Amino acid sequence: HQHAEGGAAVAMAGWLLRRAAELRRDFTWREAGGSLGDLGTFVPLLVGLTVECGLDVGTTLVFTGLYNLATALAFDVPMPLQPMKTIAAVAMTDPPMDVPQIVAAGGFVALVVLVLGCTGLMERFNAVTPFGVVRGMQLGLGMLLCAKGWTLAVWTDGTKQSMRGLWGPDGMALGALALAFVLASAPPTTTTAVDVDGSAGIGADRTHTRARGGSNDARVALVLVAVGAVIAACRPGSLAALRPGPSMPFLTFPGLADAATGVLRAGLPQLPLTTLNSVVATCALAKDLFPDKQETGVTPTGVAVSVGAMNLCGLGLGVMPCCHGAGGLAAHYRFGARTGAATAFLGAGKLFLGVAFGGSLLTLLGKFPAPLLGVLLAAASAELIRAGLDLGGLGGGEG
Fold it and tell me: What's the rounded Cα separation, in Å, for the pair 362 and 238?
C-alpha cells in the first residue's frame, strides 16, 4: 500500500514537472499580453467589493493568483478567473452584504457545482442544453460586457447620471485614444470552417464558420495596462499608501442568519449563471476557439470541479468568490493568449503583488483609469459576440 502511494506521488511529481516545462516553453510576450485582457472585469469588482463589503485585496490577490496557477496546470487553454458577478452585484447593492454573507453565497455555489461535477450530472446537463441556448448566452453576455465597457469609459459611475469630462486621467479622450489603438492593432477578420463532432450539447454535430479575428499583437493589452499603471501611480496618494508585506488572512465563518441571507440573496441567483456561463458556455467557446487542440482538459466535469474546489479552498478566509467564464476566455483570446502560460503569468503577477503589498494596493488599484478598463472590456466582448452570432448548425434538420 505504501509502495503504491509512493508511486502515485512520483507520477504526480513527474506530471507537474512536465506541465511546468510545457508552460515555460509556451510562454511568449503574446501570452503575457493576452493574460491582461480580462482586467476590465476583475479590477472594478475587486475594488468595489473591498470598499463596499470589506473584502481584503491582498488575500484575494494571493488566492486568485494560486487559482490561476492551478488552472494553468490543469487546462491547456487560457482558462479565465473572474468574480462571481451576480454575487458581486448583489453584495454591493443597498444594503451591502458583509464578508460572512459573501462567503456563504460563494461556498453554496461552489459546493453545488462541485457535487454536479463529481457525480457526472454536469455532463448530463451539458448534453441536454440546446446549442441555441449556448449561442444566445454567448451573444447576450458579449453585449452586456460591451455595455459595461461603455459605462466604464463614458460615465463616472454605474448610475449613468454624470458623464466623464473630456480631458484628464479619467477623461473620455483617454478612452477614445485607447479604442483607436485597439482598432488600429486588430488584424483583418477571416473565417475558417470547423467541424465539431458529438451527439448533443456543446459537442453537437455541426459544421460552421468561425471568426478568427482578434488582436495577435501582445502590445495592445500590455501597453494599455502599462499606461494605466503609470497614470494610477502618478495620482496623489497612490504610492504613499503602499506598505510592504502581505495581508494577514482572517477566518470568517458565517452564522445561520448570515448563511441564510447570503444563499437566498446571492447564492441562488448566481447558481444558474455559474452552470451555464462558467461551465457550459465556457466549454463551448473553448471548442470554437481551439478546434485543433485535442486534449485541452476543458470538459464540463473538469471545469465544474475546478470552480467548486478552488472556492472551497479559500472558504472562510474572505476571498472573493470566483468562477471561470466565456467572457474571460474571449478576453484572453482577443488579446493574444492561446495557452495556459498566459494564466500562469497572470497568477504569478497576482501572487507577487499580494505577497509584496497586501491590502495596501487598494488605493493604487482604485485609481487605475476606468476608461482604459472599459476599452479592454468592450474590445474583449467582440470575440464573444462573434461566437454568439455564429449560427452554424442551428438550422439543421429542424425544418
Answer: 9
Helix (H, G, I), strand (E, B) or coil at 115: helix
Q: Do residues 338 and 35 make contact, with C-beta atoms less than 8 angstroms apart? A: no
Distance, in Å, from the CA atom of 199 to the CA atom of 197, rounded to the nearest integer, reads 7
Tally the residues of the chain.
399
- Mean pLDDT across 20-48: 87
H helices present in the chain, as ranges: 2-26, 29-35, 39-53, 57-74, 85-91, 99-118, 121-128, 131-154, 172-185, 219-234, 256-262, 268-273, 282-289, 300-313, 326-334, 340-357, 362-366, 370-389
Q: Is 155 helix (H, G, I), strand (E, B) or coil?
A: strand
SS3 334: helix
188: left (phi over 0), alpha (psi -120 to 50) or beta: beta
At residue 102, the pLDDT reads 94
- Entry pTM: 0.81
pLDDT at 192 over 60: no
Let me know: does 108 contact 267? Beta carbons within 8 Å.
Answer: yes
**pLDDT on residue 154:** 84
> Quick check: 248 pLDDT over 80?
yes
272 confidence band (pLDDT: 50, 70, 90): confident
Q: Is the pLDDT of residue 79 over 90?
A: yes
The C-alpha cell 449560427 sits at 391
Mean pLDDT of 15-22: 88
Q: How far apart are CA 225 and CA 379, in angstroms?
A: 14
Average pLDDT over residues 313-338: 88
In terms of Cα–Cα distance, which of 372, 376, 370 is closest to 162?
A: 370
Secondary element (H or E) of residue 82: strand 82-83
- Cβ-proximal residues to 203 (8 Å cutoff; 6+ apart), any chain: 196, 197, 287
The whole-angstrom separation of Cα 162 and Cα 158 is 9
